[in-house]
Design a protein that fits this description.
The complex is a heterodimer of chains A (111) and B (111). With 111 residues, chain A is mainly β. In chain A, 0% of the residues lie in helices and 54% in strands. In chain A, strand 4 (31-37) and strand 5 (43-49) form a beta hairpin. Chain B has 111 residues and is mainly β. Chain B has strands at 5-7, 10-14, 19-24, 32-37, 44-49, 55-58, 61-65, 71-76, 85-92, 99-101, 105-110. Chain B starts with a strand and ends with a strand. The chains are: A mainly beta (111), B mainly beta (111).
Chain lengths: 111, 111
């Protein structure tokens, strides 16, 4: 089965800065998604990363705050912009082959 | 929108006991997925169910797709320490491939 890696695995950032998270799949996938998991909570979909076009965002998430790129069928990035402590979460990338499979997540702490 | 209600939220059991958790919705789902998340990791797919009434096993895990298509159950028999983690049900939002997740069931096992 396909494997997803994410970089960085964790980071501690200052408020007001931005962090870009990379997601790499070891095989081509048609669909890629980005999720947020706040401490002790379930997963919430941020957006669908579309190859070659703008991502499709869920209610409550906007492109200015969470710009997403997907230049090809194996790679995507999520940027968390102008961070505040409320952005402290685990950010998870997923790809779809039959069903969705997930990367290990990026644990972000904003001070 | 479609929501999944998962229960119980947490379970504290003795090693060797059987475990049962469930997921319900007011909406119909055509697919039910069960994931497990270990600390510091992304969710891993355990079982996928595609047909109402379907009963599927994966080792000591058994899951069922409810006849009404509005619920699903996951059972774990003879629990062992490595079963500790958070179990999530999930299903695709109708007409799309993006997933909605239940709140999760946190399983703790006393040796």
């Amino acid at each position: 089965s396909a494997v997803i890696s994410q970089k960085p695995s964790r980071d501690i950032c200052q408020r007001g800065t931005s962090l870009t998270i990379q997601c790499q799949v070891d095989s081509q996938v048609t669909m890629m998604f980005w999720y947020r998991q706040q401490p002790g909570q379930s997963l919430t979909l941020i957006a669908t990363a579309n190859q070659g076009s703008e991502a499709t965002y869920e209610s409550g998430f906007v492109i200015d705050k969470f710009p997403i790129s997907r230049p090809n069928l194996t790679f995507s990035t999520l940027t968390v912009s102008n961070m505040s402590p409320e952005d402290s979460s685990i950010y998870l990338c997923s790809g779809q082959v039959d069903e969705q499979f997930f990367g290990p997540g990026t644990r972000l702490t904003v001070l | 929108g479609q929501q999944l209600n998962q229960s119980p939220q947490s379970m504290f059991i003795q090693e060797g006991e059987d475990v049962s958790m469930n997921c319900t919705s007011s909406s119909i789902f055509n697919t039910w997925l069960w994931y497990k998340q270990d600390p510091g990791e992304g969710p891993v797919l355990l079982i996928a169910l595609y047909k109402a009434g379907e009963l599927t096993s994966n080792g000591r895990l058994t899951a069922q797709f409810g006849i009404t298509r509005k619920d699903s159950f996951l059972n774990i028999s003879a629990s062992i320490p490595s079963d500790v983690g958070i179990y999530f049900c999930a299903g695709p939002i109708q007409g799309a491939q993006k997933l909605v997740f239940g709140q999760g069931t946190r399983l703790t096992i006393n040796p």
